[in-house]
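Dear colleague,

Thank you for sharing your sequence with our group. We've completed the structure prediction you requested, and as agreed, I am returning the results in plain text so they can be pasted directly into your records. Please verify that the sequence below matches your submission; if there's any discrepancy, let me know and we will rerun it promptly.
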Amino acid sequence: MKCEELTRYLDELLESAHFKDYCPNGLQVEGRSEVRRIVAGVSASQALVDAAIARGADALLVHHGWFWRGEDGRVTGVRKSRLQALLGHDINLIGYHLPLDSHGEFGNNVQLARRLGWTVEGRFGEQDIGCIGRLSAPLLLAQLVRGIAAGLRREPQVIGDGARLVSRIAWCSGGAQGYFEAAIAHRVDAYLSGEISEPTVHLARESGVAYIAAGHHATERYGVQALAAHLAERFGLECEFVDIDNPV
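Please find the predicted structure tokens below.
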């Protein structure tokens, strides 16, 4: 498949033009024109680039790509090493950030709900990226947290009373602790995101709404996996997800 055709398809599927984002979405680094083998991953780190090279990939498909707003634009040090490795092996870098959080089928938040058995009932937050929903059955917060830990293979950090009953929940993958107040306004019992900051602890204690920090990387592994599986099924491409461990 031509890389141009692939990226055009992904741009349309994920409606990337509709999002105001902090980085470019779509093709970020151009490589060879023909794509047969794709390595997918969460972040375009050196380790993931090396994994793509070792597997003979034609393209690297990620959620966290490069060229973030506000970054130093000089290609030196780590940036030089990553880019040199990618260009030296003629590998395309394709990244989708907010479009891959938000998508109604392949998005991180919808995929997270499917993995944890939650029903999506609505959206909230900037550009409607966050989700509001309901558990399949009410659970004590402690029970809910055990299920999340098992589902994501990572122990979350929790602020809240483990004996609290949780029925309605809001969530947004990654570093979305800034949406916590909006989630509270929707009268949920708990909110899950990837990260937590110091003021979040006080907000959880004072509002009574539990906060679950389940890991930025851990909550954003499933969108790119689902998208890669879709490309394999639709176009017959060889797609492999490589999970580079990240404790955050």
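Summary note from our side: The first helix runs from residue 3 to 14.

Kind regards,
the structure core
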